[in-house]
């Protein structure tokens, strides 16, 4: 079951061993993704389980044009975003474009901080800022992609990111 193609085909055929192998291979890294979008370990576990249910039910749509891990990660991120919407912990819709200009581009406070410390601080952000920060700074999406994914304007995405950076910098200065 080590070959990715064999693993995918096994999952498509509802082979429990293949499904378990796929889950065990990717669950740890995907749990870390879930933690970036949720406020507790319990919520992250829920999102992870829901995401893997979707992975197994949608595995027939996987094409080999991208790595399996990237496809699974996309399912996990989309599941986390859906979870946030369901829980009404969704983005503030106010577009504060003017605020973006006021935020300094000082990102030096983010360098050198431990991952767990940053994760803890990111979890304290308002839900909108948290989602945009994760998608832009950690997952590498562009603001136009984030806007489409979340159903917001590109300006809102930029302002939420700027606000997230400002809040994180303030929290880091407080903490350290």
TrEMBL record:
PROSITE patterns: SIGMA70_ECF. Pfam families: Sigma70_r2 (PF04542), Sigma70_r4_2 (PF08281). GO terms for molecular function: DNA binding; sigma factor activity. Residues 22-88 form the RNA polymerase sigma-70 region domain. The keyword tRNA processing does not apply. Keywords: DNA-binding, Sigma factor, Transcription, Transcription regulation. This is RNA polymerase sigma factor.
């Amino acid at each position: 079951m080590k070959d990715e193609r064999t693993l995918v085909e096994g999952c498509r055929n509802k082979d429990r061993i293949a499904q378990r192998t796929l889950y065990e291979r990717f669950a740890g890294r995907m749990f870390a993704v879930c933690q970036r979008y949720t406020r507790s370990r319990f919520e992250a576990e829920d999102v992870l389980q829901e995401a893997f249910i979707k992975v197994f039910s949608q595995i027939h749509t996987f094409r080999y044009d991208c790595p399996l891990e990237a496809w699974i990660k996309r399912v996990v991120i989309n599941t986390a975003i859906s979870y946030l919407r369901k829980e009404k912990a969704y983005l503030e819709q106010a577009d504060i474009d003017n605020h973006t200009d006021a935020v300094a581009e000082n990102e030096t406070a983010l360098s050198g901080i431990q991952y767990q410390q940053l994760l803890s601080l990111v979890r304290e952000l308002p839900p909108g800022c948290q989602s945009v920060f994760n998608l832009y700074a950690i997952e590498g999406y562009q603001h136009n992609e984030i806007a489409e994914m979340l159903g917001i304007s590109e300006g809102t995405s930029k302002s939420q990111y700027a606000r997230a950076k400002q809040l994180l910098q303030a929290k880091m200065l407080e903490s350290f």
